[in-house]
Amino acid sequence: MVTKIELTQEGAEKLHKELRNLIDIERPRVIEQLSAARAQGDLSENADYDAARNSQAEIEARIKEIENILASAKIINNSSKNEKVVSLGSTVEIKDLSDNTVATYKIVGTVEANSLKQWISNVSPLGHALIGKRVGDECIVRVAQEYKVLILKIENK
């Protein structure tokens, strides 16, 4: 049984672009490095050859990973969704009621999550608590020390 991985349209496009780059640019570059390293002679003590082989293995693993993600991806399109409800792809402004801080997060699939961009997974405790809620709703975030947040704004693009 294949588990569907939820992706935003933006996330799927980013993965397709990365895949094309790996196949069309990175893979040929590493093949050239391998050829140049082989031309140096003895491969048993050739650091350039070892580095190129390691790089090739990393690239091939990432290509396979992206292909598997895309093969089992379910693309979520927010353009036709209800703008009043938090869903995958929504940008949500919330207020933490424990300390009154305000933060904005984008709800994305697990493979797109990026804490530096404030993109949280729909299966994270906060993401899970927000899904299906509306502006003005209070949500309990179920973690070791539970806390409540208030939804201030929802934007679906």
What does this protein look like?
It is a single chain. The mean pLDDT is 89. The protein is 39% helix and 25% strand. It has helices at residues 9-38, 47-71, 125-130, and strands at 5-8, 73-76, 90-96, 101-108, 119-121, 138-141, 147-156. The protein is elongated, with a radius of gyration of 22 Å. The protein folds into two domains: 5-76, Transcription elongation factor, GreA/GreB, N-terminal domain (Helix Hairpins, Orthogonal Bundle); 90-156, Chitinase A, domain 3, CATH 3.10.50. With 157 residues, it is an alpha/beta fold. A hairpin with a 5-residue loop joins strand 6 and strand 7 (147-156). Strands 5-4-3-7-6 form a five-stranded mixed β-sheet. The chain has three helices and seven strands. The two termini are 32 Å apart.
Got a strand count?
7
**Weakly predicted, low-confidence segments:** none
Assigned CATH class of the largest domain: Mainly Alpha
Q: How far is the N terminus from the C terminus?
A: 32 Å
How much helix is in the residues? 25-40%
CATH superfamily of the largest domain: Transcription elongation factor, GreA/GreB, N-terminal domain
- Output the number of helix runs: 3
Strand content: 25-35%
- What is the total number of structural domains? 2
CATH third-tier fold name of the largest domain: Helix Hairpins
| Main sheet makeup | 5 strands, mixed
Order of strands across the main sheet: 5-4-3-7-6
Radius of gyration from CA coordinates: 22 Å
Oligomer: single chain
Shape: elongated
CATH architecture of the largest domain: Orthogonal Bundle
Structural class: alpha/beta
How would you state the average pLDDT, rounded?
89
Provide the succession of SSEs.
Answer: EHHEEEEHEE
